[in-house]
Every structure is written in C-alpha cells, then in structure tokens.
Amino acid sequence: xxxxxxxxxxxxxxxxxxxxxxxxxxxxxxxxxxxxxxxxxxxxxxxxxxxxxxxxxxxxxxxxxxxxxxxxxxxxxxxxxxxxxxxxxxxxxxxxxxxxxxxxxxxxxxxxxxxxxxxxxxxxxxxxxxxxxxxxxxxxxxxxxxxxxxxxxxxxxxxxxxxxxxxxxxxxxxxxxxxxxxxxxxxxxxxxxxxxxxxxxxxxxxxxxxxxxxxxxxxxxxxxxxxxxxxxxxxxxxxxxxxxxxxxxxxxxxxxxxxxxxxxxxxxxxxxxxxxxxxxxxxxxxxxxxxxxxxxxxxxxxxxxxxxxxxxxxxxxxxxxxxxxxxxxxxxxxxxxxxxxxxxxxxxxxxxxxxxxxxxxxxxxxxxxxxxxxxxxxxxxxxxxxxxxxxxxxxxxxxxxxxxxxxxxxxxxxxxxxxxxxxxxxxxxxxxxxxxxxxxxxxxxxxxxxxxxxxxxxxxxxxxxxxxxxxxxxxxxxxxxxxxxxxxxxxxxxxxxxxxxxxxxxxxxxxxxxxxxxxxxxxxxxxxxxxxxxxxxxxxxxxxxxxxxxxxxxxxxxxxxxxxxxxxxxxxxxxxxxxxxxxxxxxxxxxxxxxxxxxxxxxxxxxxxxxxxxxxxxxxxxxxxxxxxxxxxxxxxxxxxxxxxxxxxxxxxxxxxxxxxxxxxxxxxxxxxxxxxxxxxxxxxxxxxxxxxxxxxxxxxxxxxxxxxxxxxxxxxxxxxxxxxxxxxxxxxxxxxxxx
Length: 740
Known about the structure:
Helices cover about 25% and strands about 25% of the residues. The protein is of the alpha+beta class.
C-alpha cells in the first residue's frame, strides 16, 4: 500500500470554506482582467484572517491587470487565505494548473498553487512552498483525473503568513488542451433525478417513547445495510436519502414488531430482485474486524425479514458503488454522491435523523477504528436519536452533531464545516496570552501582547484556577463532550489553545496562583484574533532555517519548517556529528518518512502496516502488508533523538514511526494526538462536515497507534517550573542523552 501525507491543515482550511456549485463558465477570467465589486469574477477569495484584494493595473504579467492580495502580519493562528475556482468533473486523464505568481514578504509568507479533487480523492501542491520575495515565476501542478468518482475540482492558490501576492496568467489544461474545450463527464443516474424532498422531508415525528426509539434505531441499521449492500442502490438507481423520507411516515405508524417487520420486508422487495453473486466471499479469517449481523437477533426480527437481509448480504454488490469507493493507491473510504443540503439553514427533523443515520453507518462499515471507541459503537445509534429529532434550532442541531462526532474518539474529527452557531456561542474574543495544561493545571505559558495587559500582572508559570468565578475543573467537565479527540492529551491541547479562554464578552475575570503560591484575581481584556499575536499548535520563527547546529557535536532539525530540498543538506551537514535532535512537536511541512528516515536504518526495515475497509464486504477491515524503509548508501552512525508531544499528530506521528525504525533512534516526550492515517470526509445535511481517520495505523507487530499515539521510549513532560524558567526540558534531555 502507498501512503501519502495527510495534510490536516489543508483539510481544515478547505472544510472551513464553502465552495459554490459549478456551472459551465462563460467568463473563466484566468488572467484576472474582469472584476465586479472589487472581486475577480469567477474566483472566490476567502480567509479567516484580514486581507485586501484589488485589481492591480500597474503590476501584472500579461494583459492589463493582475489580482493583488495583501495580508497584514496579524492572526498567526489562522494564516490561510485562499483564491479558488470551482470546476466541474471533466473527462480526461490529467489536469494541469499553471500560475504566474509574484510575492513580496519575509519568511512568514508561504504560498502554493494547489488542486483538490473532491470528495477528497486527491490533493496536490508544489513540493517546495513559495516563500519570501520572488519575481514573476510560472508554477505548475498536475493531478490524475478520476471522473467516475469525482464530483468537483478546486484549483486554488493558498497563502499563509503575511505579505503581498500578485496572481496572473493562470491556465488549466486537460490532457494538453485548454479547459475551455474540455468535456464535462456526466452519467445520468436515476438517483440524481429525484428532487422530491429538496425543500424538506415533510416527516412529522410523534413524541418518542422507548419503543419508537428502538424502531428508529432498527430502521437506521436496515437503511444503512441496504445502502451499502443492495445492488440497485449501488448502481445509483435510488436517491437513498429520499427513499428514507418516503418510507418514514408509514413506518412511524407501526404498532407491533410483526407490522414493523412486514413493512420492512415490503420496502426491500420494492427494490427488485437481487441476482446470485458468484464472486461474493465470506469474511476473511484474518480480518481485523468482521461485519456484524447479530442485530437481527437483538431486534428479534421475523424469519422472513432475517432471510431477506441474509440473502442480500450473501449476494451483495461487488465493485463500483454509487455512494462509496476506495481512495486510489491508499484505500481509505471516499464517500461519493453525498449531498450536504447546505441550502437548509435549519434542517427539519427528517434531515436531522438522516445526519445520524448517514454518519453512524459510515462508521459502522468503513471506519477501521470503530472497535476502540469508548462507547460500544453498536449502542451509539439509539443513544443519539432523541437529541437529533428534538433539536429545537440550528445551534442545538450543531451541538447534537458534534456530540455524535465525539463518539468516534478521533482527534482528526470535529465539526470542521458548518459550525457557525456553535462558534458564535463560543465567541470570537481571546486572551492576549497563551495557556496550556501542564501538570494537570491551566498554566500561562506565553504572553502574546504585554502592551494589552498593563493592568494585569500575570507571568508565564502562573496557574489559572477559576474563570468568571467558576473552577477550571468544572469548566472542563462541561465542555469536554463537545471537543472530539482520540485521547485526553489531545483534547486538553485543543481546549486550552483554542477554546477555554474564549468569549463573546470584552473581558473575563480570572483567579490565579503566582509562582510563590499567592492567590490573585484580575480582569483579562479579550480581543479578536486579528488584534493579538497568537499562533496555533506550534510557533515558527521568521527566517529560521529548519536545521542548525546546537553545538559542534549535535545537529537540530525541526520538521515544522522543513522543505524537501533540505533533506540532502541535513544529511551532509550532520554526517560527522555525535547526534541529531529531530523535533516533531509540530506538523511536518514536507513529507520525510522515507527521504530522511532512510538515513537512520542500516538494512531494509518494516515500520508500519495499515488496516483498511474491504469494499466488497462492508464492515470488514483487513490488514495490508507492512511498509519498509530502505537504507541510504551511507547510513548515519550517531544517536538520533526524536521529540514528540500532544502537538505530534497525523503525518507527524507517521513520521515518528518511520524514524523510530532506525538503529540508534530514541523517542522522548509525552503522549501524541493518536490520530494517524489518511482522512476521509463526511458531509452532512445543513452544510455540516467532518473528517475521520480512514485507515488504521499499526506497528508491524500489530500494536495500534490510533488513540494511543506514539509511546515515547523515555517519558519527558513539561513542568510548571520549566515554563517559569523558559526552558525546553525535552530538548535538554535530548542533549543529555546524546552526550552520554
């Protein structure tokens, strides 16, 4: 199996922006000559940060103008700005996107043209980010097209940091021909012609009692089973969302198990005969997870209904499926032809129930980690029916959804798209200092803007015990269920960095303990992110190289700013050192498990294996072969110390596994985020969306990493005293180990 870097920051950025539906372009405007209301026609310019976009008639590559974007040096926690165009699904084999770009800025300015093929089939960008100040230069990226699975294509320029960018003379070609001459790939599925419930489900639910909840839980199972197993649905003959709404009114009227089961049998029969399957196989004896049909007995289904379901399972669809496919070369689930119904500001109860059914069944059949959730996944469906149906407004619906997502126990997952009411409730003002959980206490670790705290004497190392007279423990108990995470370390990371000191108000009252244990109270002024010098998981220093010498004997590498072309320079510079410290308390800027990992092994060494869905047998999760790292001609002979903590997530964890395969490598630090493997996107009614870890990631011996994370060889945690003394205790320990 081939694994690629999971670009979590990109996934979140795309999910945070809404791309409109495509139409055949009459004014492509690839040269940025046409503007309306100050914006380039045909392009979306979006950002979580402040920016200025104008038509520039003085600086351009061709024609009469370019698009100029200026981004101020504020809000480092949300640095992404996107200039994007949504394209239809084209016929062809290869799409090439080229762009002329000029930049003016320092090392904080980084950008790249990119292509995303949705739903999450492919994402490509430049191997080396454009950075600093550059003259007009042509850049090009390309992607292999997969028209049978594609819904839309997004070409974009992503800009991170601050500075000025000029864009001009863009081009898109399909198999060497200009995109204007390209044909749109179309298959007319009957499912796409069904518009009956575009404006609402029209389903009215009674007040729910236990019997009705059980019936709806059963319906969710049958609906999901048929969706992924019945050939007629797999062929795109039915809009399965809308078939649910057709069936529900009669189903809500059933008064006995016999009547319920008879109605379900009738529903199944309406889908037509299922032919005998000559290629269907039983679950592999070596499968990690097997399909579960025990629920038929749990619900005491009639013999006739059990027989229908068992027959469909034995003769289930094989091969292409309208609603799901495996990501090429990788294997995680790509959910196709799923509509997000973003036009519904507050989806009605039928659509809200659809959200639960869709998400639960995706997990049931295609989540490789469903067996390690805190709550038995089999029980989750019934437990969430009432909150979804009874959600009184958009906010309640978003809260119900994020609580459902939290059941997956996956740090990759959150309500990444569509959480506008939830974010509004949480507020957009933040403290001008950083807090993190250290030694089980909420500790001030950095002052972002001292000038904004003239009336509050607070220092790094001070411990906050109360916010607005409420204890931190009480606050954590109340907000933790709304912060999905694989483990407590990752959950506390996100709560402390992004949510606990956040409000709609202009100030909050805090109680805190100083270094000499004196209790004090104070008022913290709160500001929008654009007013403070905040940053996200990790901090980068403008102009700082990705590698340097700590002394004559020890080299240091930070993957947060590494470029692909740094790898050979690192090997050459540190060849004769006593040791190398590799800092992965960040998200790698380049994919180096093999290019740099090969430097640390003496012989071909396995370092990882994956579990993934069997798409011909939904619910079955199987292991692939282990991946191996091959050694360089001249492997490194010194000690290698890898630094990890809760900021080490996804691609960072995968990279740590690769480096750990080396002969003299020691991993030190604390529990990582426990979320690895390429991500799969799930869209939900009302324009909501999330992602899940689409592969299970294991060491070659079968030890799991999901939820557990990368377990350090030597545990070293930050201390409050270390914060006060501004020490990097992990780095100190690494140097000590190398010098032993």
